[in-house]
Specification:
With 301 residues, the chain is mainly alpha-helical. The protein contains 14 helices and four strands. It has one domain. This is Amino acid/amide ABC transporter membrane protein 2, HAAT family.
Length: 301
């Protein structure tokens, strides 16, 4: 049981990084992307290749993965210069479909459908870090660090510019904000930080294939952000924990057919998002935060 819980802890930490980085552009810039799994995959494949052929040290693999992901994110950022709203969602969906094809067919880099095996474990202090008990502190620490970085960015002038653009691009432009540049920077930062999750994922499992980086993963991460609460610090983490713990909880319900757990899980995701949009549009964390802000503004307790 302990190993199972530690394994869940590692996966929650990795997906929390993805949710936090997606929230950076969704919650604060108003950019809804369906291609976040692309940068998760880029980080995983680059980290795996660097680890297998050069060094498995995170000091080497993480910067390399972040750099490649940041450069490739310009494929998503460039449409952001010209379109907004649902058009950007369509552009990100196109990139997601393209990336899945590349991941599946570029066998020299990704191993194709069969994936990459034999990815070396992270080596720290002279020991390989692969057991859940040892890897969990590493993954949780990375998630906390990414959260801190995004919070600092949100509180900076860049973050204030992002929220201004989210509320009204026209108003932001009238105040002299370079909307195209700011949106591009936000997408690049989000993609680079998402690559950190990919590196950890590859090192932890020692095996990756395209199935982990499809549209389903992008939708799952978006659901984590929406259910937890967009534009909040802890909302994406709460959403990641809830949606990853849900399959385990369903498996303990004896009256549910085990072969249908996946379908039931998807139904619960959809119903949960629909109910939240109706009754708690700010998410599990966002609405309570909004209430506190309202009370403070009104001088209430």
């Amino acid at each position: 049981m302990e190993a199972y819980l530690l394994n869940l802890g590692v996966l929650v930490s990795i997906y929390a990084i993805l949710a936090v980085t997606l929230n950076f552009i969704m919650g604060y810039a108003g950019i809804f992307s369906l291609a976040h799994a692309v940068f998760f995959g880029v980080g995983a494949y680059v980290g795996a290749q660097v680890g297998m052929h050069f060094s498995a040290s995170l000091i080497v693999t993480i910067p390399a993965a972040m750099a490649v992901s940041a450069v490739l994110s310009l494929m998503l950022a460039l449409p952001a210069l010209r379109v907004r709203g649902e058009y950007f969602v369509a552009a990100s969906l196109g990139l997601q479909m393209l990336a899945v094809t590349v991941f599946s067919e570029w066998k020299g880099m990704t191993g194709g459908i069969g994936g990459l095996i034999g990815i070396p474990a992270v080596r720290m202090f002279g020991e390989d870090i692969y057991r859940p008990a040892a890897f969990f502190p590493l993954a949780a620490g990375a998630a906390i660090l990414v959260l801190i970085v995004t919070r600092l960015l949100v509180r900076s002038s860049l973050g204030r510019s992002l929220t201004a653009i989210r509320d009204s691009e026209s108003a932001a432009e009238s105040f002299g904000k370079n909307v195209a540049l700011i949106k591009t920077i936000s997408v690049v930062v989000s993609a680079a930080l998402a690559a950190v999750a990919g590196v950890l994922y590859a090192n932890y499992l020692s095996f990756i294939n395209v199935e982990s980086f499809t549209l389903d993963t992008s939708v799952l991460v978006m659901a984590m952000v929406i259910i937890g609460g967009t534009g909040t610090a802890l909302g994406p983490i709460v959403g990641a924990a809830l949606l990853l713990l849900l399959p385990g909880m369903l498996s303990y319900l004896w009256f549910l057919p085990q072969t249908q757990i996946g379908a039931i899980q998807q139904i619960i995701y959809g119903l949960g998002m629909a109910v939240l949009m109706i009754f708690r549009p700010g998410g599990l964390v966002g609405r309570s935060g909004a209430r506190r802000r309202t009370r403070k503004a009104g001088g209430g307790k």
